[in-house]
Write a structure and sequence with these properties.
It contains 19 helices and no strands. With 446 residues, it is mostly helical.
């Protein structure tokens, strides 16, 4: 036991030394004046942009595409804009919690509320993350299939890339590489410009907010799926741990808020672009509401040309890769924090293998599931987003308890309006879940 403790202490000291170097670099940048202050801003961004762009993951891209194909532009364009402030409110709390405490989300729950609730939140997260990773590999394999890459090669290549990024880079470099990959998410914006919609119909969607077909189980299912791809448990754990691994302090909270706001803006723009694209070019086709992702890609190819199908496929692959990188790290961070293992991307894999193992193992299992013949990938994708929505209220309650603990947060505790807004979000999640369950048991018109 003494050898293990000594090893753990050495790893902790190594991690602390690397974080101290990062914080010293930030301190030196704070002394700069004029245009050189831009270097400080660039150094501070990262967790917020990453979590929100990764939120537009492969599962999210597929969900948005199926939403536009099935329901057009009428309801979901304004709905997605409203989800932007919701995502910001939730994720901003993780910035403050991580910067003030210097501890990850799992570590805070485990230490503050004990092993039972710590285990509950960890199992909740690991299950949700594993399911989410399945959707990322759906995107990777389906997207690369457009270019003739066999599913086995694309799934194995995805796992290899995730492992290389996670094992080969310390946090700062890992974050910069991840941001570079995340920039590919913007491919959907020029795609909409090259295949322009009827902009008057887009404007009308905002002017006349209606529910096409009324409130049905299918409609509520898609509402839940869109909520699940906008706010999900892994995002809370990821951004807080990322803030800690980056070494941000309370004086960096404002920069973290700006970083998150920029990420939310990018997330909403991309989500709108995808719904506009499929709502314009796929909605109205026979069986559009029940199309698989493969059929959606083919329909886009027929309507806007092969280049449209290929650009969308590239965006789908990028979305799967960046989200898989983020979700894998989230699993490793949370497991390490909860079980008091090494928990930093700054640590060498050979000495901190227990930290890296849970995330990479979950990625490998997800890739294997996607390769199962005749797996219902489209149904599985939407189901994962709905499961995330079901798990979210419990995760939100833990977050609110921590943000209102003055002993932990000091003057950075939640303001009353933040608690009210977060309470409304939790209530809305519970009500929509209950409404969906009601319509399944008692279908309208029965």
């Amino acid at each position: 036991m003494k050898v293990r403790a000594t090893g753990q202490s050495t790893l902790a000291l190594d991690d602390a030394a690397i974080r101290a170097q990062d914080q010293l670099r930030l301190a030196l940048l704070r002394r700069q004046r004029g245009w050189r202050r831009l270097l400080l801003a660039l150094a501070l961004v990262g967790p917020g942009i990453l979590v929100m762009i990764a939120d537009n993951d492969a599962g999210g891209v597929i969900t948005y595409a199926q939403t536009g194909a099935g329901y057009g532009l009428g309801f979901y364009l304004p709905f997605l804009v409203l989800l932007g402030p919701v995502a910001y409110l939730v994720q901003e709390m993780t910035v403050r919690l991580g910067a003030v405490t210097g501890r990850g989300h799992a570590e805070m729950i485990w230490g503050r509320y004990g092993p039972f609730w710590g285990s509950f939140s960890l199992v909740d997260l690991v299950v949700a993350n594993g399911l989410t990773l399945v959707t990322e590999f759906i995107g990777i394999t389906v997207g690369l299939a457009v270019f003739g890459v066999p599913p086995l090669a694309s799934a194995a290549g995805g796992v290899a890339l995730i492992a290389a990024v996670m094992l080969g880079l310390r946090y700062y470099t890992w974050e910069r590489v991840a941001l570079a990959i995340a920039a590919g998410n913007l491919v959907f914006l020029p795609l909409v410009a090259l295949a322009p919609p009827h902009w008057d119909a887009v404007a009308q969607a905002f002017a006349q907010w209606t529910i096409p077909g009324g409130v049905t189980p299918a409609f509520l299912y898609l509402v839940l799926a869109n909520l699940g791809t906008t706010i999900a448990p892994w995002m809370l754990f990821f951004q807080q741990s990322s803030v800690v691994d980056k070494g941000l302090t309370p004086r960096d909270i404002r920069a973290g808020q700006v970083d998150t706001a920029l990420g939310v803006a990018g997330m909403v723009l991309v989500a709108l672009a995808i719904v506009v694209l499929t709502g314009t070019w796929v909605h109205g086709l026979p069986h559009a509401g029940g199309m698989s992702v493969q059929q959606l890609l083919q329909a886009l190819g027929r309507r806007v040309g092969p280049w449209g199908e290929r650009l969308f496929a590239l965006g789908l692959v990028e979305a799967g890769v960046i989200a898989a990188i983020a979700v894998t790290a989230s699993t490793s961070w949370a497991t390490g924090e909860a079980l008091n293992w090494p928990r930093s991307l700054n640590l060498p894999p050979r000495r901190a293998w227990r930290f890296y193992l849970p995330g990479l193992a979950s990625a490998a299992v997800a890739a294997w599931i996607v390769l199962i013949p005749h797996a219902p990938l489209g149904f599985l994708n939407l189901t994962v987003q709905v499961v995330a929505t079901i798990f979210m209220p419990a995760a939100m309650l833990f977050l609110l308890l921590l943000l209102n603990d003055r002993e932990i947060m000091g003057r950075h505790v939640n303001r009353p309006w933040q608690n009210w807004a977060a309470g409304i979000i939790v209530g809305a999640l519970v009500l929509i879940n209950a409404a969906y369950g009601w319509t399944v048991v008692f279908p309208p018109g029965r």
